[in-house]
Amino acid sequence: MKPSDLHQVFESLPGNFAVLAAEPGFPVVAMSRELRNFSADPDNALGRPLFELFPEAPDAPGSEATLRAAFERVIRERAPHRHEQRYDVFDPVSGAFREIYWTATNTPILDEAGEVQYILHQSEDAATERRHGSMAILDAMTEGVFTLDRQWRFSYVNPEAHRILRQEPGTLIGAVIWERFPGSDESEFGEHYRRTMAERVTSQFTAFYPGLEGWYEVTSYPAPEGISVYFRDVTARELAQHDRERMALESAQQRRLYETALNNTPDFVYIFGTDHRAIYANEALLKVWGVEDVRGKTWMDLGYEQWHADMHDRELAQVIETRAPIRGEIPFTGTNGRRVYDYIFAPVLDADGEVVAVAGTTRDVTARQAAEQIIREHAERLADADRAKDEFLATLSHELRNPLAPLKNGVEILRRTTDGNSIHAEIHSMMERQVDHLVRLVDDLMEVSRITRGKISLQLQPADLGAIVSNALDAARPVLEAGRHALHVDQPEAPVHLLADPVRLTQILANLLNNAAKYSPPGSDIRLAVRKRDDALTVSVSDTGMGMEPAEIPHLFEMFTRGDRVRTSHQGGLGIGLALSRRLAMLHGGSLDAHSEGPGRGSTFTLELPGPFVDPTERTPTAIPDELRLSLRVLVADDNRDAGSSLADALQLFGAQVHVVDDGADALEQFESLAPDVAILDIGMPRVTGYDVAQALRGRDVRVPLIALTGWGQASDRDRAIAAGFDHHLVKPVAIPALVRLLASLERGGQPVDA
User: In three state form, how does the secondary structure of 56-97 look?
Assistant: First the structure.
């Protein structure tokens, strides 16, 4: 191999390597960069005699001769040779030689004739080599260890030292301790380290370093290169010691504080030992027990009756055994008479978790119990009043619906049997509007009852806003036409579909339109506007009517409150519609608010509804044409003859064969002979109720569809009807078209939908 090739190989080798020609002067053939950096001329090393590059130090005579003799021995014996010697190296920074002891290994490289052609020279700092054996021991130590050279640089740091000092492994080597740990040079650490370095003596100390917020127990030893430091983190020990000292200093004061607090509380505080004898009682309890000292006393010694003492002894034993608190309430007669006390026994545990005592607190709850009893009685009266109110509303609704049913049936008959151009048609329309108004009032009463009890729920589905607006306009049209109001509707051209309860949204908008019509003078402009945003929908109803004071607005949405404008407008109503509408809006996740510039300046009610907007769901039209004909045999049972006969007359207009009875017993007796296709039964009939009829028919295995038509319209009434055997539950007064659609679906054998 050519010398240039050898040099290229050795140039980047880690460590101190050189290839020397086996000839006088031992010229350099190749040399590692690391070794060249020790030489007198690193940039011009190749081909030069070794000892020109590494001259002998004046303070170490014979160094060159020793190394030269080692080379000659290798040439002579043609065998490797290893030895240790001092050979100082010139330091260009300081301008002086640096004392170093080397371990040198020289290996012969033979030519083809077997003669030594080159010498492979390898050297290593002997101090470094000697440290290798001890490093493994130091690395495994559970104490932190590091060494500092005379320039205060870290030359060795074991893993535990890195951990304690919170440094990444390997990041401290070569760093100056005073720079890496600021402030340590002016602390106890700097004082002791300098003493060890200068005086070459061992120093032991414990000090706090603010930079790491820790206490450290340290021993520093003199070392050949500087100092060695052994240390450990004793922060937990020091803090514990400081805590003990602090607690010892504070214990007397704390005892006085605790005793003052315990003696000035109206509660009774006491401690019993595991032998069930008293250890401590505060002054309040001492007065009740009538003693000056309780130490060593049992429950019986303190004046308790036998049963009472036995009970507390059992409780103390349970707390000691289970290590869990126990609570109770007991009457006790003491120096202040007979009182009721609430008490807690809790275990006192030592450091090992063993129960060493039982602490107790007792509170006089006599007055509290009396107050709680008053509250309970008041709550029961309120609950009774609430139940009575619900029962009254349900009964009132039932009693109102019964007379409304024949009226609504009669109006339907008149409408279908009167010429639309007749002079009576307008009267019939007026009657229909007023009956519908009464029906809405009854429905509102029941809505109030359901909402206040949280019983109302939404039937969410993809809903067409255009259809909802149209239905609301239809519902409010009689009031709008009666007031000769001009209605303006502004809504998006594109259909808007959202997830909502279409019936409830129709109810909200109809209420707002009715409200605008009622509180606007005849011939006013009323505007309904729909605005769709990306994530919300706004529907506003504005009028040019009487307006209101801003302070009046919050009260509009209170139940049974209609505001000051009612007294000036002379409008009727129960004050339910707006309150009900706002609650329905909130159930949809939206809001309903009002705005007015003042009296005489109109009002705007704004309904905000959140998205999401959905794709419409295809639905089959449910409208039934007026010319629909029924061919069913229908049995109607109702003790209200007007309601029964008017319903029969209305159904007969559609072709149904109707037989009416006014008693449940007659319905059962004539059922088989009449063989009806459908039975429509009132619930509240005398003697035999509609429930009795349904249960009896189902008991006979009769499968004829049964429809409950009743003034009882609560959810519980519907559930009870279905449980009795009814297939459908309708509330009086029923809309005749809706009932006809139901009967038509039953006749066709399809899936009926309740009205």
Answer: CCCCCCCHHHHHHHHHHHHHHHCCCEEEEEECCEEECCCCEE
- pTM tops 0.85, yes or no: no
How is residue 222 written in tokens?
A: 């003199």
What pLDDT, on the 0 to 100 scale, is given for residue 570?
44
Bond from prior residue into 612 cis (ω within 30 degrees of 0): yes
For the chain, the first-to-last Cα distance in angstroms comes to 108
Q: Residue type at 216? A: Y
The string of DSSP codes covering 117-178 is EEEEEEEEEHHHHHHHHHHHHHHT-SSEEEEEETTSBEEEE-HHHHHHTT--TTSSTT-BHH
Buried/exposed code over 638-660 (b: 16+ C-beta within 10 A; e: otherwise): bbbeebbbbbbbbbeebebbbbb
**Segment 48-74 mean pLDDT:** 92
The DSSP bridge pattern shows strands 497-500 and 461-464 to be antiparallel
- Return the SS3 of 1: coil
What value does the mean pLDDT of the chain take? 83
Q: Which two tokens stand for residue 42?
A: 């690193």
Residue 504: closest CA among 576, 568, 567, 580: 580
Other C-beta atoms lying within 10 Å of the C-beta of residue 252: 9
Q: How far are the Cα atoms of 127, 154, 178 from residue 175, in angstroms, in the given order?
A: 20, 6, 9
pLDDT (0 to 100) of residue 627: 54
pLDDT higher than 60, residue 754: no
Bridge partners (DSSP) listed for residue 610: 536
Task: Compute the C-alpha angle 353/356/360, nearest 5°.
Answer: 110
- pLDDT tens readout for residues 405-460: 677 677 777 767 776 666 666 666 667 666 665 666 666 666 665 665 555 667 77
User: Which residue, 707, 671, 667, 714, is CA-closest to 688?
Assistant: 667
Question: DSSP readout, 331-384?
Answer: EEEETTEEEEEEEEEEEEE-TTS-EEEEEEEEEE-HHHHHHHHHHHHHHHHHHH
Neighbour tally for 229: CB within 10 Å: 26
State how far the Cα of 663 lies from the Cα of 648, in Å rounded to an integer: 15
Computed from CA positions of residues 250, 255, 258, 264, in that sequence, does the dihedral angle turn out positive or negative?
negative
**Segment 120-134 mean pLDDT:** 68
